[in-house]
Design a protein that fits this description.
This protein is an alpha+beta fold. It contains 4 helices and 10 strands, in the order βββββαβαβαββαβ. Strands 1-5-2-4-3-6 form a 6-stranded mixed barrel. The longest helix has 15 residues. The protein is globular and about 45 Å long.
C-alpha cells in the first residue's frame, strides 16, 4: 500500500527549495507536523526523534541547519533544527515537531502556510567525510508499508534508470521509501523527476527531489 508520495509537477516555472544551508535563504509553502508513530524512533540523522524538542524535517536541507519558521496566518515564529527527512505529502515543504507546531498555534488546523528562513549553517566537523562530501540528490517515487512492494518498484526503476534504492523510514510499522538516481544537483534530480512523472511511473504521476544522506545513523539503504 502506498502511504505517502509527493510533489506536484504543475506550473511552468519550478521553484526549488533551498538545498544548501545559506543564511538568508527562504522558502514559502505549507508546513505540517508529526508526532506518533515517529516519537522515540530514529530520525534520518541518527538521533532519536523527540516530538517535544524544537526540530523539523525537510527534504533537502543539510542536517543541523537552523531555520526560522514564520506562520504566515498569525505571524508567530519558531526556530528549529533540521534532523529528519520529509514531509512526504503533496504540496508540503516542512514537517515540524509537535512542540514546534504548538509554539506557532498550528496544532488545531494541522497545517499552515509558512515562510522558512535559514538562520544558521550546520556545524561542520573537519574529520567527518560525510559532512564535507558533495551533496547528491535522488527522486522519491513511493513509500510503502510492504517491503516486497517497495522492492518490486526499486527493481523496475533500477532497470529503467540505472540506480534505485530502498530506504527504511523508522516507524511502527516501518515505511520503505524508493529513491531513484544519484544526481549531482537538484536541477538534475528535478529533470529525472519530470521524466518519471511524464512516463507515469510514480504513484498518481508524482515524484519529488530529496537529498541522499550518508551520515552515520541515517535511514538504512538497501
Amino acid at each position: 500500500m502506498v502511504l505517502c508520495i509527493a510533489l506536484s509537477g504543475c506550473g511552468k516555472k519550478r521553484v526549488h527549495p533551498p538545498t544548501a544551508a545559506r543564511p538568508g535563504s527562504t522558502e514559502t509553502g505549507v508546513a505540517s507536523w508529526y508526532g506518533h508513530p515517529y516519537h522515540g524512533r530514529r530520525a534520518a540523522n541518527g538521533e532519536i526523534y523527540d516530538m517535544e524538542k524544537m526540530t523539523a524535517a525537510h527534504r533537502t536541507l543539510p542536517f543541523g541547519t537552523w531555520v526560522r519558521v514564520q506562520n504566515l496566518e498569525n505571524n508567530q515564529t519558531v526556530d528549529v533544527r533540521i534532523t529528519d527527512r520529509g514531509p512526504f505529502a503533496r504540496g508540503r515543504i516542512l514537517d515540524l515537531s509537535h512542540a514546534a507546531a504548538v509554539s506557532i498555534a498550528m496544532i488545531g488546523p494541522g497545517t499552515a502556510k509558512v515562510k522558512i528562513t535559514v538562520i544558521a549553517k550546520p556545524a561542520v566537523v573537519a574529520t567527518d567525510k560525510a559532512e564535507t562530501a558533495a551533496a547528491l540528490f535522488a527522486v522519491q517515487v513511493g513509500a510503502f508499508a510492504d517491503r516486497n512492494n517497495a522492492e518490486r518498484v526499486r527493481s523496475s526503476m533500477e532497470r529503467r534508470y540505472g540506480s534505485a534504492k530502498v530506504v527504511m523510514r523508522d516507524a511502527q510499522p516501518p515505511l520503505w521509501r524508493v529513491l531513484v538516481g544519484r544526481e549531482a544537483t537538484p536541477d538534475d534530480a528535478e529533470s529525472l523527476a519530470a521524466r518519471i512523472r511524464d512516463a507515469g511511473e510514480a504513484q498518481a504521476g508524482a515524484a519529488f527531489v530529496v537529498r541522499l544522506d550518508t551520515e552515520a545513523g541515517a535511514d538504512s539503504l538497501y
